[in-house]
Amino acid sequence: MSRQALIIVDVQHGFDDPSWGARNNPDCEANIAKLLDRWELVGQPVVVIRHDSIEPQSPLRPDRPGNALKDFLRGRGDVLISKSVHSAFHGDPDLDGWLRAHDVDAVVITGITTNHCCETTARVACDLGYRVCFVGDATATFDRTGPSGQLISADQLVETTLTNLNDEFAEVSDTYQLLQRVDAPA
């Protein structure tokens, strides 16, 4: 039987800080919660990732309240990986080692932010040989200003990320499509 881990990246209170700017997808956390409930129901592994920033002003620093996971994640998941870089595969404990020890060959990526830590984690997972599903509507990001000074909306950034990943690094899905394929136990 194929084991597919749900990976929830950086769903932390610090991303509610207004300093990040305008955010898209207000349904992100609700969609992740639906997937989490299903994964727990069917007994598939759940990996929770927490970004422990080393940046002096970051709301995600371990000594700041923003480092805490969102309330619906508290006490859930089979393992908590702490990282200070973009990829969940460069944290502690070692995600690749944990997945292989638990016979996982496929991962489902969700979380915040779409075009940073989620995308990076998906790319590294693919490079390590995992089948990757990237759930676009179970991620969120923020408007960004490009090097030319042009404002790029969060929705545009998500569309670009999904385009870059699709059929190259990951299967792109949405919550509804994925839930239709994850069966409850008989």
Topology:
Layout: E1 3-9, H1 28-42, E2 46-51, E3 79-83, E4 91-92, H2 95-101, E5 104-112, H3 114-127, E6 131-140, E7 144-145, E8 151-152, H4 154-165, E9 171-173, H5 175-181
Parallel strand pairs: 1-2, 1-5, 2-3, 5-6, 6-9
Antiparallel strand pairs: 3-4, 7-8
Helix pairs in contact: 3-4
Short description:
The protein contains 5 helices and 9 strands; from the N terminus they run βαβββαβαβββαβα. It has helices at about 30-40, 95-100, 115-125, 155-165, 175-180, and strands spanning about 5-10, 45-50, 80-85, 90, 105-110, 130-140, 145, 150, 170-175. The radius of gyration is 16 Å and the shape is globular.
Q: Work out the helix count.
A: 5
**Overall 3D geometry?**
globular
CATH architecture: 3-Layer(aba) Sandwich
| Mean of pLDDT | 96
CATH C-level category: Alpha Beta
Residue ranges: pLDDT <50 for 5 or more in a row?
none
CATH superfamily: Isochorismatase-like
Number of strands: 9
CATH fold topology: Rossmann fold
What level of helicity do the residues show? 25-40%
Distance between the termini: 14 Å
Strand content: 15-25%
State Rg: 16 Å
